[in-house]
Amino acid sequence: MDDDIQKFNSAQLQEISGEDLEFEKELIDLYKGEFEAALERIKTALEEGNEKEFILYSHDLKGSSANVGADAISAICKTMEKLGKDGKMMEGDKYVPYLEAEYEAFVEVFDQYCLEREDSQE
Known about the structure:
Strand content: under 5%
Number of helices: 5
Structural class: mainly alpha
Radius of gyration: 15 Å
Largest sheet: none
Distance between the termini: 37 Å
Mean pLDDT: 93
Order of helices and strands: HHHHH
């Protein structure tokens, strides 16, 4: 994936949260649930050959990821959504491992961000 795309765009999250760290944590907790549900739906759509669902959940995850600053995840979902719209949904299967890896990296970077913000507030 593109190394220039941020795993976590903290400025985006701070903008929508008003720089309220506790609210940011709540938003990310909600996002985690949304990510896991959307990922399962994407996998199911691939297994069932359901192009409409694949496009829908790739699109939804692209938007929710962008909202919380998960830029790398959003970029992968954008690629997957385009593949679906271009009739190449099954090629999206190769992006699922990248999506899972970027999610793990995002969570790790976000956790570090929280620790640094908490330390700076003391």
